[in-house]
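User: If only I could read backbone structure tokens as easily as an amino acid sequence. Underneath my words sits a plain record pairing an amino acid chain with its backbone structure tokens. This is the protein in question:
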Amino acid sequence: MPVNADFQGRTYPPTRPYRVSAAKIREFAEAVGSSDPAHFDAEVARSRGYADVIAPPTFAVLIAQQCDRQLVTDPQAGIDYSRVVHGEQKFVHHRPLTAGDSIVGTLHVDAVREAGGHAMVTTRSELATDAGEPVCTATSTLVIRGGE
């Protein structure tokens, strides 16, 4: 198994803050084909009780993958990025990501195991405002393909 199994249980320091902007939300919503006006129109979002436009639920992957980058680029982890396949992604939202949020993510390596000659790494990114308010828990499974 090319991945260092001792990384199971490791927690990385919080990422630098990611500023959620209305422009990024709009771009992402257009890219995924969302038609919910709360992603585009601040007045609609405010009428629903939000401070500004809200992001589609899968927008959190942008921040979660910045967290995962800490593990993937850690030379001691033993991960060959050219062999990485994104296997699974789950989100538990505590509230929508909103334009104006400043979000930090803390990466936890929950599991490292072997399956069929491949390494399977499960990570959990706890996304919160830089003031500490929980926003989303993003869980990802990375598959690192074994040798040919």
